[in-house]
Amino acid sequence: xxxxxxxxxxxxxxxxxxxxxxxxxxxxxxxxxxxxxxxxxxxxxxxxxxxxxxxxxxxxxxxxxxxxxxxxxxxxxxxxxxxxxxxxxxxxxxxxxxxxxxxxxxxxxxxxxxxxxxxxxxxxxxxxxxxxxxxxxxxxxxx
Length: 143
Known about the structure:
alpha+beta, CATH 2.40.50.140, 2 domains, rod-shaped
């Protein structure tokens, strides 16, 4: 075992940390692997074992402390581009057939949709411009 240089062991450790990174998709393993590569570089330049372990610890902890919160923030963000029925919410439509609490028809995004009024006591007449507040199945809820 003494015949193999320390930097090789650090690279083996980095590869070993890469396996659970791929299997579990936990980025922390990748950050530890980068720390092991940094320690391998220190070992390659002749740094002692204390320097190697210190570099491994500092680089790994720094990456976890900096990258993990950024990744968590990006993971929590909703997509910027709304698609499907989510893209239709908030759009304006034109009433084609009288719309009230029980139903009617509107033209929304170039298509004819069934619609009903959000306020069941309110009716919209042909030609009125309305706002789509929600989509329930194939029915647009308007106001």
